[in-house]
Amino acid sequence: MSYFRAENLSLHFGGLKAVDAVSFAVEKGEILSIIGPNGAGKSSIFNLISRIYRPTTGRIFFEDQDITEQPPYDIARLGIARTFQNIELFENATVLSNLLVGRHRHSTTQLWQELLFLPSVRANEKVHRRRVEQVIEFLDLEPYRDKLISGLPYGVRKVIELARALCSEPKLILLDEPSSGLNVEETGDMSFWIRDMKSELGVTVLMVEHDMSLVNRVSDRVIALNYGRVLAMGSPAEVQQHPDVVAAYLGA
Amino acid sequence: MRFLFKTDYEDDIKLFPHSGYVVSYGILLALLLIAPYVLSSYLMSQLVFVCIYATVGVGLLILTGFTGQASLGHAAFLAIGAYTAAYLQKYNVPFPVYFLAAGALTGLIGAMVGFPALRLTGIYLVIATISFALIVEEILARWESVTNGNEGMRVKTLSLLGVTVPRDSPTFYFLCLAVLVLTIVGTLNLLRSPTGRAFVAIRDSETAARSMGVNVALYKVKSFAISAAITGFAGVLFAHKLSFISPEMFTLQLSIEFIIVILIGGTFSLHGAVLGAIFIVMIDPFLTYLKDDLPGIIAGIAATFGAGAATAGNIQSKVAAFASLNGLKGAIYGIIIVLFVLFEPLGLYGRWLKIKLFFQLFPLYKRATFKRQKIYVKSERNR
């Protein structure tokens, strides 16, 4: 059985088939990229997995568990974290508290304990903080800890969103265009981090990406989508030479 | 300027980041403790109202400032707290019991209001909370067997552990102060733990909060319940302070006053609730002063500029008529809100921070420091 599996997944808005009977599987510890022209349904697949949309048909399995009917907040608890195409950070909070929100799925304290800030809460806070510091070190975010998000440049925000997702200690991470808006150097950093996430943290990565150089550098496998349907699946080189993919990008 | 050298995670958890805070808050507390023996009884009474309004302000800040859910229904929560106290008092329930019962009941009703509010945002939520406040006001007026209807209810003098505490005694002031301080400390504790961060997360991006594992519905209801419970506690003190309560005290205007408290104080910090409460409580005597003295002053100015006695008298009566117009207070409140939102969106506490920074960085302060930064596009469609 596969680690993560989408079976016959569809999302229809009236007559528009944003995602149309897509099936794919992600193996544990691999980096799978989804590519495709604009409007191909890549981000919609992510929104289906993180339950922002409810699939019209199809089922989603994670670690042999059917998660299609799970409420959205439980998806994170199962160990699936994500980033967003347009950055979705908590603008008026510090970097540190943004990252600590990433630890939310691990918080065990009750409301009344927190009101009194009992020693157990304090101890938990320190554990959370230690994990956050590991992620800060991993992604070189040390200079920004106490800064407000609203004052940070776009490239840094992109990394902080990745950091927030990593703070939840995910098993599977969904990256929605990790390199959009980044310059060449930042994209290079991003590709190293994605590979390190796989090799050092053992995270499985599912990513939507337009930048083919990044896709080629990091992906184990690639899926090409167009009009909500799978065109091709395989190694980066195979997919790029697939006649349907060439047709979709360049026109037949 | 002071640079904090952090050596422990504890440094980011502490309530007082450095010893300067301990000293300044210690002095403030000492001043507040000797206040009843120094200040006039009128100012003491105003100070009690500041404590009560600030408590409500802290409650409203949790909901509006930190969770991002606007409410114009907090007068109703205050009323529920006040009436619970007055009603239970009739059956000789001791103060600690009805104080806690009022908070619990208000919290429960707050949670019930929170549920329908889950599907509403922005202006629609405001309308829903106004409707709730109007319903409560109507119930208070009609449910005569419990609330005594429009005749109102008399609230007996507070009796704490067998000792009577009159509403203008120092002990009552200390009680209000203790409730305020405990509320603030509890709220600060909440804000530095997962629940408080979840509130802030919901305020800034519900989609992201959800995908980080925050049960948005649950936390919104929690926020409503906590905010309402705090307001309920304040309601008990409010009832005792006024010693008489009736439905027309808990109108929309009172809810607007609470919004003014946090809007003028600053919606991003608990300091705002206290500063805003001082402002709103002190503006009342100021308005009365204007009403009483302004006509005479203007007539005097007119006379110095050579107006005849008849003209001056005419001006004086016209100004007096204007100053006692119905609804003038509401209009002044409206103008204050508009001016603050336009020119000082961070409120009085924001102004204080600017002044502080000016002196810390002197002469390097930049006016653009507090300018609103660019906000990148968010996925509105994912709501």
Automatic annotation (TrEMBL), chain B:
Main location: membrane
Keyword tags: Cell membrane, Membrane, Transmembrane, Transmembrane helix
Chain segments annotated as transmembrane: 21-39, 45-63, 95-115, 122-143, 172-191, 212-238, 258-282, 294-312, 332-350
Record CDD domains: TM_PBP1_LivM_like
GO terms assigned for molecular function: branched-chain amino acid transmembrane transporter activity
Lyase listed as a keyword: no
Protein name as catalogued: Branched-chain amino acid ABC transporter permease
Annotated source species: Bradyrhizobium japonicum
